[in-house]
């Protein structure tokens, strides 16, 4: 393919020509720094065999660089108003397909099956919309798509959550989901000035290298993540209260206490103090109780 990337500065021109109004509510802070775009693609370690999923192509600035480096790019964009702009910026790139819709509502496994050969590992590369960063990462990490690497721009504060440990303020379900299956790395911090319009916060590019083996063994992965999410649902509540309100029914208090007792976990502890190993143990011990309930 011939190198024909239009300078990302064109993003500004394209937006103006199409009289496009950026929507803050959709996290539309477009990247206009060619150096950063190149570094993101470099961090993804793409080859001619790579299959890439991009979330939120916006005006297509990053998408063009991805299309130059990978075999195939599938880009999911919520804002259909960007269609004429993307038609223009991605013109000639036959290895890109853009799907319009909300990534959180899409069956990603289905999309990948339709677009890629079976079982091909997927690399996710994106400048994520910040209002939905956590749900998107949770969906990618706990879903069925065979993801190899994730390289994404996030708020600097979110980058801090990835490696957080119990007791730290930023420790939460995202920290556990990431550490369960990947080794997180901060590639670089990024100033506000490289976006149009400038966001209120600084950003960071992170890489999640998905490991073949998980940090802990659990009998039912989907239930493990439900338990983790429920335990952090209301951070100020104790573990037993969170489990009663968000996972089991209220009349199961005695059964919940019995399991916590058997595992040796004080019911007055908060979710934010539990290690990933304790969550794994709890997940296996709660299996019977959830099966009875459902
Ligand atoms: N990739 C472009 C860039 O780097 O300049 C745009 C990045 S911008 C931070 C985030 C993009 O995600 C926007 O284009 C926005 O419309 C899109 N978006 C927001 N919410 C989304 C969702 N739920 N599903 C898919 N795309 C979404």
From TrEMBL:
Main localisation: cytoplasm
Cellular location(s): Cytoplasm
InterPro entries: KsgA/Erm (IPR001737), rRNA_Ade_diMease-like_C (IPR023165), rRNA_Ade_Mease_Trfase_CS (IPR020596), rRNA_Ade_methylase_Trfase_N (IPR020598), rRNA_adenine_dimethylase (IPR011530), SAM-dependent_MTases_sf (IPR029063)
Pfam hit, one: RrnaAD
Catalytic activity: adenosine(1518)/adenosine(1519) in 16S rRNA + 4 S-adenosyl-L-methionine = N(6)-dimethyladenosine(1518)/N(6)-dimethyladenosine(1519) in 16S rRNA + 4 S-adenosyl-L-homocysteine + 4 H(+)
List of residues binding S-adenosyl-L-methionine: 29, 31, 56, 77, 102, 127
PROSITE patterns recorded: RRNA_A_DIMETH (PS01131), SAM_RNA_A_N6_MT (PS51689)
Keywords: Cytoplasm, Methyltransferase, RNA-binding, rRNA processing, S-adenosyl-L-methionine, Transferase
Gene Ontology molecular-function annotations: 16S rRNA (adenine(1518)-N(6)/adenine(1519)-N(6))-dimethyltransferase activity; RNA binding
NCBIfam families: ksgA (TIGR00755)
Primary role: Specifically dimethylates two adjacent adenosines (A1518 and A1519) in the loop of a conserved hairpin near the 3'-end of 16S rRNA in the 30S particle. May play a critical role in biogenesis of 30S subunits.
HAMAP family given in the database record: 16SrRNA_methyltr_A (MF_00607)
Similarity remark: Belongs to the class I-like SAM-binding methyltransferase superfamily. rRNA adenine N(6)-methyltransferase family. RsmA subfamily.
Full protein name: Ribosomal RNA small subunit methyltransferase A
Annotated organism of origin: Sporolactobacillus shoreae
């Amino acid at each position: 393919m011939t190198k024909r990337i239009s300078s990302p500065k064109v993003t500004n021109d394209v937006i103006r020509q199409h009289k496009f109004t950026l929507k803050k509510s959709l996290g539309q802070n477009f990247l206009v720094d060619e150096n950063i775009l190149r570094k993101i693609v470099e961090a993804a370690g793409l080859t001619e065999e790579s299959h890439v999923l991009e979330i939120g192509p916006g005006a297509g600035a990053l998408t063009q660089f991805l299309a130059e480096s990978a075999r195939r790019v599938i880009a999911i964009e919520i804002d259909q108003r960007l269609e004429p702009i993307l038609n223009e910026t991605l013109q000639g790139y036959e290895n890109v397909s853009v799907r319009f819709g909300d990534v959180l509502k899409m069956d990603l496994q289905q999309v990948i099956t339709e677009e890629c050969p079976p079982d091909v590992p997927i690399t996710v590369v994106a400048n994520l919309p910040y209002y939905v960063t956590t749900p998107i990462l949770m969906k990618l990490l706990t879903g069925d798509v065979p993801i190899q690497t994730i390289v994404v721009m996030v708020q600097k504060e979110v980058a801090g959550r990835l490696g957080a440990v119990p007791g730290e303020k930023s420790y939460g379900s995202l920290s556990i989901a990431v550490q369960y299956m990947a080794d997180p790395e901060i590639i670089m911090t990024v100033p506000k000035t490289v976006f149009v319009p400038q966001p209120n916060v600084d950003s960071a590019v992170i890489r999640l290298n998905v490991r073949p083996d998980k940090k802990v063994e659990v009998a039912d992965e989907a239930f493990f993540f439900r338990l983790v999410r429920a335990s952090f649902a209301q951070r100020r509540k104790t573990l037993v209260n969170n489990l009663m309100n968000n996972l089991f029914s209220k009349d199961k208090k005695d059964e919940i206490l019995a399991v916590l007792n058997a595992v040796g976990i004080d019911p007055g502890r908060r979710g934010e103090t539990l290690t990933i190993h304790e969550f794994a143990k709890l997940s296996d011990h709660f299996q019977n109780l959830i099966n009875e309930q459902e």
